[in-house]
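Contributing new complexes? Match this layout with 2-(butylsulfanyl)adenosine.
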Amino acid sequence: MTQNQTHDPSGLSQEQAKVELLQLQAQLIAADQAYHQDDTPILSDADYDAAKRRYQALVTAFPRLQEIATQLDTVGAPVGSGFGKIQHVVPMLSLGNAFDDGDVADFDRSIRSYLGLDANQPLAYTAEPKIDGLSLSLRYEKGVLIQAATRGDGATGENVTANARTIADIPQQLQGAPEVLEVRGEVYMSHEDFAALNARYMERGGKTFANPRNAAAGSLRQLDAEITRERPLRFFAYSWGDLSAPLGNTQSEAIERLHELGFQTNPLTQSCASVAEMIAHYRHIEAQRATLGYDIDGVVYKVDALALQARLGFRSTTPRWAIAHKFPAELAWTHLEAIDIQVGRTGALSPVARLTPVTVGGVVVSNATLHNEDYIRGRDNKGEEIRDGKDIRVGDWVQIYRAGDVIPKVADVDLTKRTGEDVPFDFPETCPECGSPAVREEGDAVRRCTGGIICPAQAIEKLKHFVSRKAFDIEGLGAKQLEMFYGDPDLPIRTPVDIYTLEERDAGQLAKLKNRSGWGDQSAANLFAAITEKRNIALGRMIFALGIRHVGEVAAKDLALHFGSWDELAKALDLARPAALAHRSADMAEDQERAEANREGRRAKIKETREAVLSRLELHLAAREAWEDLVGIDGIGATVGLSLSDALANAQERAVFDDLVGHLNISAPAAPTQESPVAGLTVVFTGKLEKMTRDEAKARAEALGAKVSGSVSKKTDILVAGPGAGSKEKKAQDLGIRILDEDGWLAEIAPK
Ligand code: IVH
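Output block (do not edit by hand):
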């Protein structure tokens, strides 16, 4: 031990302390191993004790080091009240799905089309089992495991470091790894271990787990790591996150490298040179499924070359370069005991089948979806027969279909089991929750309650959506609490604004509710703190949280990026309102014209009808421009535009939105992290591009913080015009917009 190491560590910087701690940690681990396993000590007792004391002193002086400290004496360590949060440096994404061979061929085609490769050019993939467990990200710095995080919502996960350390397949230390290495993979439980665990619990009269995945998830997410230690969890590595140096040039090389570093990688991983080889390997894996000893639910294909993966990049939640080819669904027969109608956030009446519980692929199913009234009648959304036109009746013997995590559905009916007393299902035309008329619009498969937020079911579902993980994510305010608050006579929450006025309306009432609903001083204070914390919110999340029909997470982000603030968005929608209504009238006239023409056996002159309607309405130019700007945003379109316009024009809803905004600090979308000359600019691509496909051009521009629009307007900053550009180029010239050819654009975005 050097002299320095016995000194008070408080003079060090956090970074110096961390480096020293990691060095000491490596030394202590090596010393422990030498002493306990190899019987050949490498440190004297005195040096060992000194190192240990210094180690403890560093953690006491720098409490944040606790997260990475593995060699603390755990006895008496404080037990956390929940898991801490960890922000993923590289988001943890999910995978798109393929359900049949055709989907796999489409996947290959779309990749080739994105990269501009023809069908004959070589393109290699890897194929490997999709493990049915839960994903985990392991962060190693200087070869030492310092953090383990669950996927969470993909951006933020839970800190399960202490639990991950108890898993034998997860190395605590790596030799020769890059300085920073995040290894990602799946935690799972084998069939054998699962059966033994359940048998043990059954003996003790305790609760058992429904399947190995639930058992693995429940075990990893134990607040007491000692319980995790008793559960036999395993880990397969298949991917990575943050890295200081590449692991190889291809997926296969990278996986091989992870294997060499000491991780379990799946032995059924294979390189494939074509779709035919991918499908052959899928069949090979499928044939072994029952004897593998652990659950898999499909095969994952990945583009092998990492340079191509980088070019392909990501959609909002899934990579373009990978897909999961799922195994076919599981089926089972049971009795349909009742059909209930649930009313959703947007008023949709959804029929739910209540079933005599049945096991489908290892999971007990007692509810299944019946989609909508046509589905019950035996028709699809075009009025064509499904199930040979057989309708579904209460009392029927029905077949249940379950594929992966998707909600089970009723797939078929056995008519031979009917008693003759059953009657066709009478779908309600009024809302079962509020009694308002439930109407079905032309072309919509769904019947909807017209009660809006006076319908308690819609209001509660909207509130649940508002506080959900991808929206405001308010801890301690979930479905159960919202249902209680909604009907509370003294302290009701009926709109999102009520959440933000809860504390000022409370006056100590909540803390007194101890007996009735479990609230005490502490839990009330925690709730208020959680609500206050979420006064700071990103614009995209806030728009998504409003629960406007068709405005999903991606559309909300696109809107936030385009408008930059709630005021700008609201102003633009107010301005565009007459044009939105005109658009709807033109749509209706168009439908009518088409129907008449059909009846008379002639072709409809849609364009003329549309133009005639629009010109009769004499739209203000500003309204038309605002509407075109809105629906021109890539990924938005008339359906989202109209729904948004209706929501903001509805006086009741608008009052809530405007009021809510007053309670929040809304942040504009963050500027892209890298320096980018085109960040914030609106770009339009037209004509033929020769060096990359249109999709790739768009994705790259967006990754650099540009907005890509489909139409030229005053707001366009750059038009990238390839050969064959037409009216868009002319319009850009008239408006004096900067026009670049493809090379000019590439020079513009090249790193300088
Ligand atoms: S690759 C960027 N490979 O499936 C995508 N995922 O449905 C990285 N999973 O969240 C994922 N086995 O938890 C990949 N061999 C495998 C997998 C696998 C299981 C899980 C993973 C992911 C989910 C998506």
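Reviewers usually confirm one structural detail per submission. For this one: The longest strand covers residues 330-343.
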